[in-house]
Amino acid sequence: MQVVKESSSSSSMRMVGESRMESVYERVRLLVSGNAVVVFTISGCCMCHVVKQLLFGLGVGPTIVELDRDVAGKEIHAFLFQLAGDGQQQPVPAVFVGGKFLGGIETVMACHINGTLIPLLKQAGALWL
To answer: Can you give the C-alpha Rg of the chain in angstroms?
Structure first.
């Protein structure tokens, strides 16, 4: 077994990076747990626009976080990229309903088409109809 000694600067840099990701995770967790629907977007993204318009059209007033206009946008974007998984799904738009990650545009549209989106929104308290 070989032991590799880390320099104190690289160790402290890793600790700062881990600390930042923990604070990003905590910020996202608090945001999604405190709002019925949260959508992470990038301004000018057509798929983000489609998801927002769909939700507005259904009568939902989601909390929208535009990552390119947020101080921690790059870190949140990196976190969402990890959350999206296998790399086949784009990290934005990222939709959270009832404190849980629903998914991106593909998932939201599939739920809308198969009729499961409105019950999810009602259960989360985003719709009262």
So the answer is: 17
